[in-house]
Amino acid sequence: METVEFFSAEDVAWQADAPCAVADFDFVPDVETDAGADEAQAWCRACPVRTQCLAWAMLHGAEGYWGGTTTYQRNQLKRVRTRAKCPLCTSTELAYTDPHELCLACGVSWIRDVREQPIAATPLPQTAA
Length: 129
What we know:
Elements: H1 34-44, H2 50-60, H3 71-78, E1 94-97, E2 100-103, E3 109-111
Antiparallel strand pairs: 1-2, 2-3
């Protein structure tokens, strides 16, 4: 995992080192397309300041292609992702202490690595009462 050095959210000096600074490609188009995302990826793939670019765009809510991502992808990265129900008792009374999740109803706890498993909870089968 890459570590980003601290930089001010207002500091844009890193942009001088970005190859896109001299590109004729529109990185902030009126409409983002799959073809545009592919071309932006080609520019961003080997960019030396890609991490700073993405961090800046996330901090500022920028639209367009930044750090090799689309506006939609960055919005997805911002979403809070947690389990909706306890996998054991299906209670929705959960407490979150990153990276732990704890069911307040039955006491079961778990650690979720969002990179390895999808977050969407699969509903447990309903038992006949």
